[in-house]
Amino acid sequence: MPNSEADAEKRILGRIQEMISQEKDLRDRLVENTVDQPAEHERLAQLETELDQCWDLLRQRRARVAAGQDPADAHVRPASQVEDYLS
């Protein structure tokens, strides 16, 4: 994997780690009742969607590499698409 592609993957993984940390913090604050619940539930839902999109992008990039294609051609798919995937 060329260096720029490795850097792109590191950036995506870094963003995922940031969002996981934010999600954990929000969940902790919700349990402690130290935040406005409706607003924080909305932010939590937004984070979960963004995480799904990042994981999807990472999977797309890795699949393209495995298939001998350019991972830079992968793109963030709409939330409506990634939220409909089955686990």
Written account of the structure:
By secondary structure, this protein is mostly helical. The protein has three helices and no strands. The protein has helices spanning 3-31, 37-66, 79-82.
> Which structural category fits the helices and strands?
mainly alpha
- Average pLDDT confidence is 88
Radius of gyration: 16 Å
Q: What share of the residues does DSSP label as strand, in percent?
A: under 5%
Report the sheet with the most strands, covering strand number, pairing sense and barrel closure: none
| Estimated helix fraction | over 70%
User: What is the end-to-end distance?
Assistant: 28 Å
Return the string of H and E elements. Answer: HHH
The shape is elongated
Q: Unreliable runs, pLDDT <50, ≥5 residues?
A: none
Number of helices: 3
Number of distinct beta strands: 0
Topology:
Blueprint: H1 3-31, H2 37-66, H3 79-82
Helix pairs in contact: 1-2
Brief write-up:
This protein is mainly α. The chain has helices spanning 3-31, 37-66, 79-82. It is built from three helices and no strands.
Q: Which descriptors apply to this entry?
A:
elongated; single chain; 87 residues; 3 helices; mainly alpha
